[in-house]
Structures are given as structure tokens and as C-alpha cells.
# Entry
Amino acid sequence: MSSLFPGFETFDILVEPEVSIHGLRGGSGPPLLLLHGFPQTHAIWHKVAPSLKAQYAVVVVDLRGYGNSSKPSAFDDGLEDHHLYAKSAMARDCTIVMSRLGYDSFFLCGHDRGGRVAHKLCVDHPSRVRKVMILDVCPTKAMYEATDKSFAHAYWHWFFLTQPAPFPENILNASPEVMAAKFLQGHVRDIFTEQALGQYVKQFREYDTAHAMCEDYRASMYEDIDEQNADERAGRKVECSLRVLWGRKGVIEAKFDALAEWRSQCEKVDLASCALDCGHYIPEEVPDELLQHLREFFT
# Structure
């Protein structure tokens, strides 16, 4: 992976007795943490991060359960007990990593699942985040509540991956290339570099990683919804400035009013929030446009 991130150094930081988070760091300046989504790793940022390190101290991590980070598993995983992959747990991992690296506060950008972690991190640890950018998601609860025929067809994986173990895990393992291509919407050659794609496909071959990815989605259906309900009852919202970007060719544009949904969660939604001319995988589809937004917003 080092060739994708020239000038970056790797790290593995223990955040719990048996959980370590893998990542890379490079550059100097104000700290900027980048969080990937499913079914990817920190490799999603390889078209963006190297260009940012002249201006920022860039940190990219593999979320727990993904890439080279630990894949914790509860011995008695129950249908509704997936707390190890609640976004509050993933957010806590990130705050510990940034503290160990010496950063009390930082800029934050998350794509897909990473956007959901970023949302929870801002709510649970408001003093840590200077500004946040969220890419191509709406709040989890809003998306579940909007489920209809077209949403279920487009986001079928939300309902497949949440089936009880080991059913979806075994299917992912049985046909890793086929399943990866399906999840990546067929963009196996036109968007993703061979080296990054290899990292994504690898995750489908490993049972522990497949299980962790399923647990990530199971947690969203149960623990994450419960946590968001609790936050809303307590009036907890994102306190810092938020810029949201989404793909004009994707589900967020077709099914949601992204600005309205995020304004319900944050009173400081940036006026430059907008749709970009791309699909879901913004950092790899339109890296130059994303770079422009990152540099403009994170000042």
C-alpha cells in the first residue's frame, strides 16, 4: 500500500486491549482525518491524500473491522447485539488514534460508512472536531425511515448484510470477486486502480472481515438507530460547521433532500454543500473536485 501513499508512514495504535487501528500519516499543518466506507479501506483516499500533505497533517485509517485493523467479535453475537460495531465505538477509536498522534482537535472527512462514523464522532466528541465534511450519505435513521421499493432495490445490501450470521458472510466468502463487483456497482476498472481494488476484493475472501462488515451494517439497523434516537431526545447535534457533498448520479440525489436532512442534525450546514457530477465513490471518481472542496472548507 505504500506506493499508493508516497511519503506516508504506517502505524498501528491499540485503542482497546485487543483492538488496534491501522493507518497512515503524512504531511504537516492542521490535522485532517479521512474515514473510508464499505467495502473499502483507507486506500479510497489514495488519489486525494498525497496532494493534501503539503497543507495538512493527513491521517487515514482502516475503521475497525476493515483492512488491517482488528476485527473484534463477540462470542455470543445475538440478533440485536452488535455493539462492537456501533458508530459510537468506531468514533471512539478515531478519537483515541488522534490523541495518540498528538492531535487534540482536527478536521474530519468521512465517506459512506465513514460519514456515519464522522456524524457520531461530532455528536459524541464535539470539542475534537473543528469542521466536518460528509460524503454521499444522509443520516442513518432518515435513510431507514425512507425505505420504499426503489430504495430497497438500490440499497439491497442494507438488508442482505444484516441477515443473521453466518448466512451473508458465507456468500461473500464463496464469491468474493462477484460480490465485490456488485457492491462496487460494476466500477472495477474505470474508477478503481488495480492496487486499491485488490485491497477491496481481499476483504471478501476473509471470513473475519466479512463478518465485521456485516456487523457494521447490523449495528446500524439496531445500535446506531437507538443511539440516534437518544441523541435526538437529548437535543445533541453536530455543533461544528458541516459541508455535505453527494453524487448527482446516485441514490442521495434521487431519493433525499440532503441539505434538509443534514440541517435537521446540524445548525451550521455550509452554503457550498452541493451535488457533484459523479456517482457514489467521490474520492476515486472526482478527486480533483473533492480536493478543491477540502482545501476551501478546511481553513
Observations:
- The CA atoms of residues 180 and 201 lie 6 Å apart.
- The radius of gyration is 18 Å.
